[in-house]
């Protein structure tokens, strides 16, 4: 997918020039081109290795059929082995039925088309920023260039005690935009939740829109995002369609780009058909102000095991709005591109934060999900909740069984796991290829391999450390 049209153009930077023994601009450009070629060669090598692994797994599955049959026979002879097969088969059938249910919901989903300028509600856009540097300027510029009646927009940006030049770039935006933006500084770094809280308290719009300070929106994003509030009075929140801004800067962003498309355009589309999107993303979300003020005090004072909650503010707000009986929807036509980690360390820290938030908010959700929290059907929402808990409950048994399988039958484990990745991830490949490009879709295979073998520990670790505080990726 082409992302360049979304990006606010920055002033061109000159290459270093030669002076005496200094590096010449020609040498500099040559070094840059060499780095690009090496990066491209590495990406090609990773994709080739991915396909070799998957093809080898498919071949081994065929060659090792006698060993698989013997393993199955041995398990059937023992009580524990038989129970394992029954449970595993039951889970497989459930997952298949849940997937088919999700597919049906996906085809039922339709994004709301933009309403007229006259019908659009007044909006307050809140952009919290912490150590984002120039990126916050680009974010604010993309927002102000939106195809949205300017007289209905209130733009607020809050520097959450940054230690870099974020405040400088916010001031530069203020110089350009004048009264169209209000900028503020927190007295110290207090966390994203407190920065948003300040924006909510100052906002005057009927709808609050929250945008991360490393994100770029399309010109029609805002009007598409808030249109559901106009046509559906039960709508309390709307999730935007998050995609990767820096997907040309590394293999991990390329993998995450495919993952995000699946997470938003497939899964959240299905959730939206039930009016029950479980998480409105920090990168881009909209909330009915009435719904926000009804839970704002509980949200800002939320604790977990006696400690203030400083993560998962987006999932927490979503839960509290669902609890009020509102619908939470997804707008596929409201695009935002956001920066994601480019290295493994940043990636696992982000996933740990998300995992801890998931544990906390699933516990919070359990307190209202089986009550009459809305008049309409609640079955689908409860099924989504059950599916979330099933993943958490099975995390430790899955890891334990995985290590036992590796120790007892390593070749069978790796061949069957890789073959499963080939089968399951092919849906992601086809979905992304249908929506965007075939070339980008193949990273779904590499991502699944990486997640299975290098990130499998995230959920068990997040469960064990759910009470820990800290953003992890800030700095």
TrEMBL record:
KW Membrane (keyword) present: yes
Compartment(s) of residence: Cell membrane
Major localization class: membrane
Top-rank lineage group of the source organism: Bacteria
EC number: 2.4.-.-
Keyword Transmembrane helix on entry: yes
UniProt keyword terms in alphabetical order: Cell membrane, Glycosyltransferase, Membrane, Transferase, Transmembrane, Transmembrane helix
Protein name, per record: Glycosyltransferase
Species per Swiss-Prot/TrEMBL record: Flavobacterium rhizosphaerae
Biological classification of the source: Bacteria, Pseudomonadati, Bacteroidota, Flavobacteriia, Flavobacteriales
């Amino acid at each position: 997918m082409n992302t360049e049209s979304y990006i606010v153009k920055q002033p061109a930077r000159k290459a270093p020039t030669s002076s005496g023994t200094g590096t010449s601009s020609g040498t500099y450009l040559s070094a840059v081109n060499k780095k690009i070629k090496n990066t491209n060669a590495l990406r090609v090598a990773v994709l080739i290795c991915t396909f070799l692994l998957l093809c080898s797994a498919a071949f081994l599955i065929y060659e090792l059929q006698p060993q698989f049959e013997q393993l199955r026979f041995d398990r059937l002879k023992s009580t524990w082995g038989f129970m394992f097969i029954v449970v595993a088969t039951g889970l497989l059938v459930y997952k298949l039925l849940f997937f088919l249910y999700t597919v049906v919901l996906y085809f039922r989903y339709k994004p709301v088309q933009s309403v007229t300028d006259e019908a659009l509600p007044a909006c307050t856009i809140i952009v919290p920023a912490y150590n984002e540097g120039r990126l916050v300027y680009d974010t604010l510029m993309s927002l102000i260039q939106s195809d949205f009646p300017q007289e209905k927009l209130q733009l607020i940006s809050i520097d959450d005690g940054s230690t870099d030049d974020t405040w400088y770039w916010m001031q530069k935006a203020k110089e350009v935009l004048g009264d169209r933006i209000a900028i503020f500084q927190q007295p110290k770094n207090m966390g994203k939740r407190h920065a948003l809280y300040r924006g909510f308290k100052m906002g005057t719009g009927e709808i609050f829109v929250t945008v991360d300070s490393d994100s770029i929106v399309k010109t029609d994003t805002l009007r598409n995002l808030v249109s559901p509030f106009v046509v559906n009075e039960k709508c309390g929140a709307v999730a935007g369609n998050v995609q990767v801004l820096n997907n040309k800067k590394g293999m991990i962003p390329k993998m995450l780009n495919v993952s995000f498309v699946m997470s938003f355009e497939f899964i959240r589309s299905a959730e939206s058909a039930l009016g029950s999107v479980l998480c409105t993303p920090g990168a881009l979300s909209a909330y009915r102000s009435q719904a926000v003020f009804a839970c704002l005090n509980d949200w800002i004072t939320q604790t977990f095991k006696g400690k203030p909650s400083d993560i998962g503010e987006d999932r927490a707000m979503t839960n509290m709005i669902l609890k009020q009986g509102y619908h939470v929807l997804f707008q596929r036509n409201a695009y935002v591109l956001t920066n994601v980690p480019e290295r493994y360390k940043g990636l696992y820290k982000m996933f740990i934060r998300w995992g801890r938030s998931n544990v906390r908010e699933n516990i919070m959700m359990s307190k209202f999900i089986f009550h009459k929290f809305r008049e309409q059907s609640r079955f689908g929402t409860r099924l989504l909740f059950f599916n979330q808990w099933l993943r958490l409950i099975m995390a430790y048994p899955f890891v334990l069984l995985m290590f036992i399988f590796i120790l007892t039958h390593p070749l069978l484990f790796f061949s069957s796991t890789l073959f499963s990745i080939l089968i399951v991830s092919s849906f992601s490949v086809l979905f992304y290829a249908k929506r965007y490009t075939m070339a980008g879709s193949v990273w779904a295979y590499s991502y699944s391999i990486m997640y299975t073998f290098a990130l499998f520990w995230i959920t068990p670790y997040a469960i064990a450390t759910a009470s820990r505080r800290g953003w992890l990726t800030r700095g």
